[in-house]
């Protein structure tokens, strides 16, 4: 059985912004397109239906022209403190596909984002783990936690920069 506490990816970041603003930039297309995704990639939002059962379908393109598509399917949403979503790679039509970089990567990653405010700053905690995955896919996820940590550090750096110039 996959143990989230021991094997899941847990990221924590404190940002200098109120929780309502941080929730807003995680839940609106006009904001997400400015910071979500790998460092240096341009982001286009195909669809954002921010509601339980809704989808966020997006395209990421590197400066060299490498294109990846992604998909969130939202679960529980408690404004402004929690967003649960399943993240997958997808094709242009929004169908789940294998990761372009790893043959045995899990198709679906369950994510729980929580936001806690203290003195005008917000602590973001993102917990992710594979669901509906084979043992081999779970092993690949676990083996690549350091790489994912580095990737999310770049994404969260972009979030910090975006929050510094954004207000409610």
Automatic annotation (TrEMBL):
Residues 16-163 form the Activator of Hsp90 ATPase homologue 1/2-like C-terminal domain. It comes from Gottfriedia luciferensis. This is Polyketide cyclase. Belongs to the AHA1 family. SUPFAM superfamilies: Bet v1-like. It comes from the Bacteria. Coiled coil: none annotated. Pfam families: AHSA1 (PF08327).
